[in-house]
Amino acid sequence: MKKIAMIIVLLAKMVVNSFSQEVVRLAKYAGNLKKMDVTIDGKRYAFLFDSGAGVTLISPAVASALGRTPYGRSVGFRMTGEKFIYQKCDRVKIKIGDKEISHDTVGVFDLMSFLPAGLPRVDGVISLKSFQNEIISVDLGASQLILENRKSALKKQKHMTPLTSRFSTGQSGGDLDVFLGAKRDNKLFWFLFDSGNLDQVRISSQTAAEWELQNEPAIGATQKAELFFGPKADAAEVQVSDIIYDGALNYDYISKKIFLLDIIKKQVWMN
């Protein structure tokens, strides 16, 4: 009887674990920017969450606390085309929620030098790169990320719409950005999945011209447009911008929906 009881307990644990999810709470930082608590080498830090950051960053102070000397030079580009230069640090473990995630490489950059004076200190940025071996749900409306497993993800997918997507690893292969394809006249226009964009949904002047939103698209002009990422259109306020992409989603659009990102299989769902 004891043996049978032990088997039943083990099976029950397996069932619970197969559907278990790790919920990561997001807190308000400034405006609609979100932050989370992480643990590195036993110390707790506040990091921003930015789905459009491309690379996960730690501050020079965190690198120093780890006894690491940043090295090298990496160059990224903001959506405006502006260069973003940072150093690197290898083999860093970051605990997000109850899950410790190993990072082969993180960027090293003093984020406070980039932010307006007077804001509370943050010691890094968690990007989608941190979840390159994960399946996550992004639910900004509920201020949470959910680390899924295969079974919980499959259960959610049944009630969600699959999207056309691209996963980019940047020029050197060390980044991770997600782009969603917006359909227009049997063409696809690629929008960066960017929770850190606190302005309107952005579109390039070329995209605005091809969508015939106005005869002579002016930088900074804002107007209503329909976005087709799934079978149904979403009305959104879009701003014509001088950007290097077709477009970029923003916090407001992303927060009104739930997105499931299977970064392992490079697939995205939405509801």
Per-chain topology:
Elements: H1 2-19, E1 22-25, E2 27-28, E3 34-40, E4 43-49, E5 57-58, H2 60-65, E6 71-77, E7 83-96, E8 99-108, E9 124-126, E10 135-139, E11 144-148, H3 150-157, E12 161-163, E13 165-168, E14 177-184, E15 187-192, E16 201-204, H4 205-210, E17 222-227, E18 234-241, E19 247-248, H5 251-255, E20 259-262, E21 267-270
Parallel strand pairs: 4-9, 5-8, 15-19, 16-18
Antiparallel strand pairs: 1-11, 2-3, 3-4, 3-7, 5-9, 6-7, 7-8, 10-11, 10-20, 12-21, 13-14, 14-15, 16-19, 17-18, 20-21
Question: What descriptors fit this protein?
Answer:
six-stranded antiparallel beta sheet, about 270 residues, globular, 5 helices, alpha+beta
Any overview of this molecule?
The protein is α+β, with helices and mostly antiparallel strands and about 270 residues long. Helix content is about 15%, strand content about 40%. It contains 5 helices and 21 strands. The protein has helices at about 1-20, 60-65, 150-155, 205-210, 250-255; strands spanning about 20-25, 25-30, 35-40, 45-50, 55-60, 70-75, 85-95, 100-110, 125, 135-140, 145-150, 160-165, 165-170, 175-185, 185-190, 200-205, 220-225, 235-240, 245-250, 260, 265-270. The strands form 3 sheets. The chain has a 7-stranded mixed beta sheet with strand order 13-14-15-19-16-18-17. A hairpin with a 2-residue loop joins strand 3 (about 35-40) and strand 4. The chain is globular. It starts with a helix and ends with a strand. The model is unreliable at about 5-20 (pLDDT under 50).
